Queue: 2 jobs
Job 1
Amino acid sequence: MAAPRACKETTLGFVERTENWRLSRQFFPSKVGGKPAWLSMTDIPTSEKLNCRKCGAVCVFLMQVYCPITEQGTCFHRTLFIFCCRDPTCHKHSDNAAFVVFRSQLPRENEFYDYEPPDEDVPLGEGKDCNSSGGDVTDDSLCAVCGCFGGKKCAKCHMKSYCCREHQLIDWKAGHRKECGSTGSIANGCKQILFPEFELVTESEDYHHEDMDDGGKEESHVQDDTGDKSEINVAELEKMALSESKEDRQFAKFKKRTDHEPDQVIRYQLGGQPLLISCENQPQQQDIPPCSSCGSERHFEFQVMPQLLIHLDVDSLEASIDWGTLLIYTCAKSCDGASAYLPEFLWKQDIVPESNK
Ligand SMILES: [Zn+2]
Ligand SMILES: [Zn+2]
Ligand SMILES: [Zn+2]
Ligand SMILES: [Zn+2]
């Protein structure tokens, strides 16, 4: 995704069905669901690094956004990855414990990809071994179920890799018990655990200033009113009314801004301001921890919208995975750390339930 620069305009992302091959890592995709299309093939996160901080299970791939920083040589390729726990009960109100975020970046000249970009219209040929283009890890050594680092092999056939016992069990039940030892692959444990797969396509937000929220106008109106010498302090009154309906106002603002493009699933604006869904639980600067690698402050980079939930097949009558909006903050220097996958920060903002008001 081309990151917008000086003008700070917002780029919107939408989900679209596409051929599977377009979403493989050689095409540097932005995508939702399926397995992660890793950027760097070293230091691929292990199950321990993907543990849900509520239940300890391995978080599965939610989405990735390809967002190079063109003026920074080390970020010629750059992708942000979000993982989340599949257990709905781990998704608590305004709590990020069921999410894990990583940033990976590479210079143009690197050991994994050609200097020239791939031909976007040609699938990689069957003959071309795209799995062994350098690096410590090949796609075969990734977990057959979730696609993260597969440190354990099936003890019987030594063919399939898994990140943890749970995922091996899922695959075994899904059919590996029948195919184990034979060639060909029918087992598909992935289906039970991965989110539906989509490409993320982007476009600039077409939003005009005259459509902007009317906050400015209203304030000047209040100023005028305090000028007349009536006994009721209008400004005071307005302030009270405002605090009562503050929640609804922030939500109304959110809705107004998104109604133009109701299908948007992400909003990207590097170093910009997120569109908050509620006036409650807004992140303050001190809530955003500095980069754990270089200590620089983190800035806002993009947010995931509630619209994405519609495409994830997570709705059930009981508890389901849910969020108001997910705000992603990344190292303002986009530093190169000791690992090829550096943790970044996610803030989960929800709409306050009626019962808590
Ligand atoms: Zn969990
Ligand atoms: Zn796995
Ligand atoms: Zn086996
Ligand atoms: Zn950093």
Job 2
Amino acid sequence: MPSFSMEVKNELSHFNETNLCCLYAELAALLRMDGTFVLSAKHHLGINFSTENAAVARRALAFLKGLCIGEINTELVVKRSRRLQKNNYYIIRVMPSSLVDELLKNMGIINADGFNMGKDSSLLSKYCCKESYLRGAFLGGGSVNKPDRGYHLELSTSNYEFSRQLLTLLNQFKFPVGKTTRKDYYVLYLKESEAIISFLRMIGAEQVLEEFESTRNLKEVRNQVNRLVNCETANLQKTVEASLRQVQNMKKLLKDAKAKNLPDALKKTAWARINNPDVSLSELAQILGIGKSGVNHRLRKLEAMALQLRRCENK
Ligand SMILES: [Zn+2]
């Protein structure tokens, strides 16, 4: 079964991108996430791009062909994983040529100063492109948990400058972003369900959102029920402890010689409590045929006497 991240990426890979500006923005983020650039002997640039997801590889290839800058030479290699349960790798090689130089210039990855490590502000002037850029980043190095495994969405990259760029962008959209490092990777993450939903909606993952939201709702109902049960258990525990303490006190008091002088009403109350340790105050009031406040008053009096008795014994 594909992972939830894989499902999201599969859906995003079919997102229909029609604006050329957005196409450049998404491709730039995608390449920055998982691509490396190579320089040929003739000083032309080439790109190596790898992904675990076949649909992402296809999308990147389609983008490279759809940029209308001429025939870019590409090669797709599938690397089979030797380890079981590890996914295959798809490597796209874009052969070095003047067209690739032009493409990287158009994307702002190379500029007059040479390589631009990750400041893509020129690609991000329009709102539409910002969304596409985040989609590219997710397709390249994103992952998201299914909500039943805890809320977590992350974008991880080995490029520090680029992670700063993504952080700035996510902050602009007021996402509550956390950041950390893992091995050689800079990781930005979201932990709140609402933020994850907004992010997925922003980058165009509408179908998986339905699944995400229904799992989240189910989880929240389950949590709510658990909270209620825990709360009731805690209350019950308190009642049981209180009545146990009372019963012990009453027994002690009735055993005491001086208790012979105990008024009948108090004696009755003490016995009622001993015989009915697990009933509530109102039920005890019913048994005794008096009001709740009356029972409360008598019980307090009995407890005070028991306390007094214990004090005297300890002297
Ligand atoms: Zn755009």
